[in-house]
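Why do we care about 3D structure at all? Because function follows from shape, and shape follows, mostly, from sequence. That is the central idea of this module. The next example makes it concrete: a single protein chain, its amino acid sequence, and then its structure expressed as tokens.
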Amino acid sequence: MTQILIVDDNPDILEALELLLSLHDYTVLTAENEKQALLAVAHQRVDLVIQDMNFAQGITSGNEGQSLFKALKALNNNLPIILITAWTQLETAISLVKGGATDYLQKPWDDNKLLELVAQYSQKPQAKLNKKNSTENSKSSVEDFIYKSQVMHSLIAQAGKVADATVNVLITGANGAGKEKLADYIHQQSPRFNNAFIKVNMGALPHDLMEAELFGAEKGAFTGANQARIGRFEAAHNGTLFLDEIANLTLSGQMKLLRVLQTGEFERLGSNSTIKVDVRVLSASNADLTLAVQQGTFREDLYYRLNVIELNLPELVQRQADIVPLAEYFIGSEYSLSDETKQALTSHAWPGNVRELENACKRALVFANKSILAPSDFQLTSSLVVTTANEKEHIKQVLIKHNGVIKHSALELGLSRQALYRRIEKYQIDVETLC
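And the structure:
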């Protein structure tokens, strides 16, 4: 999957671009300054960069963007870079395009134009594989999983068996545990591996757009529908559709989804024409769907349709043997972990699971002064011995640290904002009183 790095010091712009691109099946990394951007490109696979021209408040010269552009090109001269610029830096942006930048867009950008550029320049030659090479890549994708624990060995073995079947699979587990990764593995190991793998995060979609996103819509079907669009089911025909955070699907959407699972048929919003597709559905949830069924917020018949086979992904605290190998993978070969750091990482409860661990590793690379990373680089000193029993206290301390700002607190915890809100409700934390 194409991985895009967005570089901008404005968190609102980062959030807007991350949402836009993730809704179109791109994996998104973000950086707020030159150092973070260079670390990301140096230590992770980046297929395309979208960068602003300034990274400090009040600076409008475009010199920072020019410096970053040259540094990125020094790391990887073939890396496509799209510049986003205000009119005051337009001349600089044009000169950079002449000097090797892929393209530029003026602020405020046009979403459709941005998506066109991303689609045009993120196509990698190695994606055009023949079937033989695709098969080899599919069967070796298990190597993308980093684990040593016995529980993960057993889970991957189960997933391999399930992949060859045509049944729907429900993947359960906590936020950040790797449910999307497991769904991707099942698709790559399945007979459908050569066809589309389409992902939809139901938790990131407004309720009034969910059905249009899944089933498509005709022009004029709702306010803002200026042209006809296909839905994710059509896009996934003959392939696999992954529905993450399935518990967020509206009841009307659940009824339509049930019909598709039963018959393969549906209609776009605003249309009477029936469309038939062949799609395997993988779904995921960190919520208790059996409780949702009891409470009447999730249809029981749909639950059993989705849950032909359930695979449960354990929390990271339940597979401690995976923590150090994962951390070593995230920090890359240029860095190593001291014995003290390994102990500190293993002792941490990781309520945000693998996502929290990855974020901690990113922070460590930013603050590290040596190639051997110390516990202080991970900023875990106040919570090295956090256990599941005192997760509430850990969350409270993080909320206090960030003055109750949910976005920043969720990022440090490795949780989605929705997951953090659920924990705040679960533990009855009064954010206003804290801050």
